[in-house]
Amino acid sequence: MSHIASRLAAVKPSASMAVSQAAKDLAATGVDVIDLGLGEPDFPAPEHITRAAFEAASRERMLYTASLGTPELRKAIAAKFKLENGLEFAIDEITVANGAKQIIFNALMATMEEGDEAILPTPYFVSYPEMVKLFGGVPVTPACPAEVGFRLTPDVLESAITPRTRWLFLNMPGNPSGAVYNEEQLKALGAVLEKHPQVLVLSDEIYEHIIFDGRKFVSFGAACPALRDRTLIVNGMSKAYAMTGWRVGYAAGPKDLIKAMATIQSQSCTSVSQPAQIAARAALEGSQDDVGTFRAAFERRRDLVVAGIAKISSLTLDPPEGAFYAYIGCAGVIGAKTPSGQTLEDDVAVAKYLLDEGHVAAVPGTAYGLSPFFRISTATSEQVLSEAVARIGAAVAKLSF
Ligand code: PMP
User: Fold this and answer.
1) Domain boundaries, the chain
2) Whether the CB of 98 sits within 6 Å of ligand 1
3) Is the dihedral of CA 314, 318, 319, 325 positive or negative?
4) pLDDT single digits (tens) 145-193
5) What's the 313 CA to ligand 1 centre distance in angstroms?
6) DSSP per-residue letters across 139-199
7) Mean pLDDT (whole number) for 82-110
8) Which CATH class is domain 60-285?
9) pLDDT tens per residue across span 44-59
10) How confident is the model at residue 256 (pLDDT cuts 50, 70, 90)?
11) What is the DSSP pairing of strand 117-119 with strand 165-171?
12) Ligand 1 neighbour 323 (Cβ under 6 A)
């Protein structure tokens, strides 16, 4: 007899974590594996950020804080939204959690009734559908293919909405695609949403600062002010400040939703750890120079990967517009035979082949709901990325068509 709750039956563990585990297992046998599975900046967090937390913790007691987050951090977040996004939020419209992931978890727990639908433009971040299912919801996954820049279009949105739609998730720049929406594209989606007052919008803007080719980031909140009372803007420290392990995410949205999310938090983790909140405040209020340096490094890596993949005739990659992934189309190798005589039936087989033959760990597109693709993370050095692209090219060259 299982002791595990039935609501977990449909929930899968993270696919990118699973790929990393497979890479680690292979590496443990002595193979030199390049793991491009996980999306984690490879830079250390800037020194002034870690020092702020360290000094505070050495000087004073670290205690529970308000569940919403310390007022000082929420003020810093409000100032960030005003300065960077042109948005005004009071501090009771802002909450802090252990990563953007916990923000999303709290938001869904606060709002989802059994059978409610969440529209997840596909490809989507792996955790979205699993969290939706955890709360009895139904993921609705309209395909947003490479031909439309992996972006949700107004007509596809309109046809995905039903009376049961509770949420539309947007993620820009997108994981895994890197897709960015401009102001006009967001306004066009907003115009559809204005006709459907039952739909809340979760705009996951965690890759805001990792955006390329001089594009200007436009928050959904800034593009669609008429939807302010049903928009939750999600962001966090992990990507922009290389602070994944500090676990600080935040959100701004309608006061009643923020209050409900804080209630959940007060009965679960109480608050985010105080040193982490001190570090986050130092990050937001301090010099932003490192953010720009990281961004420039990610753009050079993107260029290197795009140029390298362009030389492999059976793979496709339009330049990602932001974030630190390349979502590589592999339709051209589906059906090909490996040197050991196996046929590559799908992108899971392609990713397995790249790991076994090329010793490069990539995540198959099935994990993100759109196939056939595989995702590599570009959050590693140019030297490692060059080697990885060379290995992928060599592995593909061994296939017979
Ligand atoms: N949203 C997206 C789109 C992500 O890619 C990630 C991290 N991979 C997260 C949220 C979670 O970020 P955090 O570390 O703040 O929980």
Assistant:
1) 6-44+290-397, 60-285
2) no
3) negative
4) 999 999 999 999 999 999 999 999 999 999 999 999 999 999 999 999 9
5) 32
6) EE--B--GGGTT---HHHHHHH--TTEEEEEEESS-TTT-----HHHHHHHHHHHHT-TT-
7) 98
8) alpha beta
9) 999 999 999 999 999 9
10) very high
11) parallel
12) no
Q: What are phi and psi of 34, to 5 degrees?
A: -100, 115
Hey, is 235 helix, strand or coil?
strand
| Cβ contact 63:277 at 8 Å | no
Instruction: Give, as one character, the DSSP assignment of residue 131.
Output: H
Determine how many CB atoms are found less than 10 A away from the CB of residue 394: 12
Q: Per mean pLDDT, which range of 9-23, 64-78, 354-368 is the poorest?
A: 9-23
- Helix (H) / strand (E) containing 118: strand 117-119
Q: How confident is the model at residue 373 (pLDDT cuts 50, 70, 90)?
A: very high
Q: How are beta strands 373-377 and 363-364 bridged, if at all?
A: antiparallel
Between CA 13 and CA 304 the distance in angstroms is 31
Beta bridge partners of residue 211, listed in sequence order: 322
* Distance from the alpha carbon of residue 206 to the mean position of ligand 1, in angstroms: 7
Ligand 1 closest atom vs CA 40:
8
Which protein residue has the closest C-alpha to ligand 1 atom 16?
A: 99
CATH match for 6-44+290-397 among 3.10.290.10, 3.40.50.720, 3.40.50.300, 3.90.1150.10:
3.90.1150.10
Helix or strand holding residue 302 (H, E): helix 289-310
Look at 27-41, 128-142, 251-265, 311-325 and tell me which has the smallest mean pLDDT. Answer: 27-41
Let me know if 133 is exposed, middle or buried by CB neighbors in 10 A (0-12, 13-18, 19+).
buried
Beta bridge partners of 95: 251
Q: Would you say 354 and 394 are in contact if contact means Cβ atoms under 8 Å apart?
A: no
Read off the pTM.
Answer: 0.97
Give first-to-last CA distance, the chain, whole Å.
49
Which atom of ligand 1 is closest in space to residue 98's alpha carbon? 16
CA atoms of 273 and 281, how far apart (whole Å) = 13
* The residue to which tokens 């993949």 are assigned: 309
